[in-house]
UniProtKB/TrEMBL annotation:
Name of the featured protein: Glutamine cyclotransferase
Lineage top rank: taxon: Eukaryota
Transmembrane segments: 49-68
Pfam families, per the entry: Glu_cyclase_2
Positions of the UniProt region annotated as Disordered: 1-34
PANTHER family for the chain: GLUTAMINYL-PEPTIDE CYCLOTRANSFERASE
An example Gene Ontology molecular-function term: glutaminyl-peptide cyclotransferase activity
Taxonomic source organism: Musa troglodytarum
Keywords: Membrane, Transmembrane, Transmembrane helix
Biased composition (Low complexity): 15-33
Lineage: Eukaryota, Viridiplantae, Streptophyta, Embryophyta, Tracheophyta
Length: 334
């Protein structure tokens, strides 16, 4: 018969490694602890496995739904056309001796009138003309040392810049004899336009300047680009429905520009206008240069240097293949 401990007393268990670990915080954990930890971790993961699976399934369904919605929006809201063509709505007589110049050398003044800045030394002027007849109503002859360029209308004042100088002029729109001279910070004076708050200007480079209309100081500048190519020789300007439109010198193209970042949003191709004038015998004409926008009636007018006509045109998205790349047709190489 085995001999055991007296009743009422329990046999003392020999000390275990876990006991040592409990009494000595620097002692390594016992092997049995590792086993318990692994088992508890494994059981925990098994218990939580259903939650991640449900989340993954939910996220997958959400991703599929968002992708479908984006595709639906992309189909319903198509990207803007890469280029526009045009239809001629009307033709108006235009003084062929008016070397219409600058970004907004042509400005719609309301009441079927236009303001123009004309170029050439000793022949430059600011004038008001009747749209329907082209007849000059008011004319201010500039000093012969200035070559008239960009023109824009802000409030009751006309702003004009001049070629190869940093000198510009302001005029009372109702009385051209009331004028003042100013100095700007652009490298040259090519074109002007305004959104009613800021004046946009160009100097023949790829830079679109933002000018404070009170001080004429540059408050911002952006580089105009198309497909990572800078677009130099920005010339005629007009502000149309939140965009700055610019003739590119020596081309028959108008760039529709985001004034926020300088990106060309699309192009207006007007090659057929000049070609039509050439075919009709007007061989002395120069480049396309002159944009005016009638905001109230959404009318768009264009003309060029030494052109005998001013055209009202309606834009339509271009279709078919171009005869060359946009970069070759509209981006002049420096």
């Amino acid at each position: 018969m085995p001999v055991g401990p007296p009743k009422g007393k329990r046999r003392r268990r020999p000390p275990q490694s876990s006991d040592l670990a409990a009494s000595d915080p620097m002692a390594p954990p016992a092997a049995s602890d590792f086993g318990r930890r692994k088992r508890s971790r494994r059981y925990c993961c098994r218990g939580e496995a259903s939650l991640p699976v449900a989340l993954v399934a939910l996220c997958t369904l959400l991703f599929v739904y968002i992708t479908w919605k984006r595709m639906t929006v992309a189909v319903s809201v198509s990207a803007p056309p890469r280029f526009y063509s045009f239809d001629i709505v009307n033709e108006f007589p235009h003084d062929p001796d008016a070397f219409t110049q600058a970004r907004s050398g042509l400005v719609y003044g309301g009441n079927e009138t236009l303001f123009e800045s004309t170029g050439l030394y000793h022949r430059s002027s600011v004038r008001q003309v009747l749209l329907q007849t082209g007849k000059v109503q008011v004319l201010h002859q500039m000093d012969g040392s200035y070559f008239g360029e960009g023109l824009t209308l802000l409030g009751e004042r006309l702003f004009q810049v001049t070629w190869l100088t940093r000198t510009g002029f302001t005029y009372d729109r109702y009385n051209f004899s009331k004028w003042n001279r100013f100095t700007h910070q652009m490298h040259d004076g090519w074109g002007l336009a305004t959104d009613g708050k800021v004046i946009f200007g160009t100097d023949g480079s790829s830079t679109l300047y933002h000018l404070d209309p009170q001080t004429l100081k540059v408050i911002r500048r952006v580089t105009v680009r198309y497909n990572d190519h800078e677009v130099p020789y920005l010339n005629e300007l007009e502000y149309v429905n939140g965009e700055v439109w610019a003739n590119v010198w020596q081309t028959d193209c108008i760039a529709r520009i985001s004034h926020k970042d300088g990106m060309v949003l699309s192009w207006i191709l007007l090659h057929e206008l000049r070609h039509g004038l050439l075919k009709s015998g007007h061989t002395a004409i120069d480049v396309l240069n002159g944009i005016a926008w009638d905001e109230k009636t959404n009318r768009l007018f264009v003309t060029g240097k030494l052109w005998p006509k001013l055209y009202q045109i309606h834009l339509r998205p271009g279709t078919g293949q171009l005869k060359g790349r946009i970069e070759d047709l509209c981006v002049t190489r420096v």
